[in-house]
Amino acid sequence: MRGIHTLTTFPRVSRRVLENTIALRLLWGESPVALLMRILAKLLEVFLRPFGLKPPRSRPTMRTLFYVGVGLTSAWLSRNAYCKRFCKTARDRRTQLRRLHGAVKESQTFEEWFEAAKTLETFQLKDKPRQEHGEFDKELVTHRLQTLQANREDENVGDMMFALRADLLRSLGNMAESRIHNSVSVPPVIKEYTEEVRLQLKIVTEKLDIPLEEKLTFLQEVRHVFGRTALMLSGAGMHGAFHLGVIKGLENQDQLPRVIAGSSVGSIVSAYVGTRTPEELRGAFSDDNFASTVTQLAFFNGQSLSAALAHATRGGCGGHVSLHDYGFFKRRVKQLLGDLTFQEAYDRSGGGILCVCV
């Protein structure tokens, strides 16, 4: 009845417009103008979302006014000379960062990577110095460093051995926190502490008036407390080839740990490393022979396409369809590693410790 009354009260208004208005109010509960403002606000919200702008939680009209204000402010700032310089500086910085990240990614040797990463870190920390607070206990590490330095200055080898035996921990004051070592440089106090420990261990081992048995006992106890670094190679299927690059990088820098463990394809790579003599390992992962080593570790290269298809049509292993022949894989691994026991592999590798996780 209210709609009929409206139609009869305003005869000059188009009947179709009024009918559409009534329909919109019944369907959406708002006028056409409010609906148009809502649509406009939504479009502006989608457009400005990449810039991190969020509308206020209010009516559509207020959101629209907010975006209109943002647009007018942006237009004014684009004509401001200071803002132009600021935008140009930010744009140049992003370009420089992309170039430095590309240099790190495309580096071929450790030396190239180190220089590129150091340049990138210096550039990133130029405007925002690195925050050390909260990552490790700087006061504790500094106190232990001063204690070690005092013992060395007093030339008291007994106190030096006692302090090292009691306090030499891998993560003293949480200084082994991974966030500290994610970059090229580490806090200076950690470097000084590490260098002081290295120097005092050298002094103890070169001291002639200490019996050899006492030295060996001391070094074994310190090593047991400090622990030993190990390399774990995960299962990754075809991506296991990346393990070879890791091994090559560590071997070329003489940083390959004695303890190496692996699972799935990582166990095959770790077994390959654990069954080679040091000379064979250096030769296999040298720049000249690395390509042939990768080819040698491609286990299904020797299986022809016809043999693989014939195996798949026969039903594979245990009657299940599979592309690769388990028997061929087994023979290939045996050719690659040889028929060795863990003890024989340990002796052959010069004391390398191998662990296969199943």
UniProtKB/TrEMBL annotation:
What terms describe the molecular function in GO for this protein?
Answer: triacylglycerol lipase activity
The answer to whether UniProt assigns keyword Hydrolase to this entry is yes
Q: Where is this motif: GXSXG?
A: 262-266
Extent of motif GXGXXG? 235-240
What keywords sit in the KW lines?
A: Hydrolase, Lipid degradation, Lipid metabolism
- The answer to whether keyword Lipid metabolism applies is yes
| Gene3D superfamilies for this protein | Cytosolic phospholipase A2 catalytic domain
User: Residue ranges of the PNPLA domain?
Assistant: 231-358
What is the species listed in this Swiss-Prot or TrEMBL entry? Pyramimonas obovata
Record's protein name: PNPLA domain-containing protein
InterPro entries per the record? Acyl_Trfase/lysoPLipase (IPR016035), NTE (IPR050301), PNPLA_dom (IPR002641), Triacylglycerol_lipase_N (IPR021771)
The residue range of the signal peptide is none
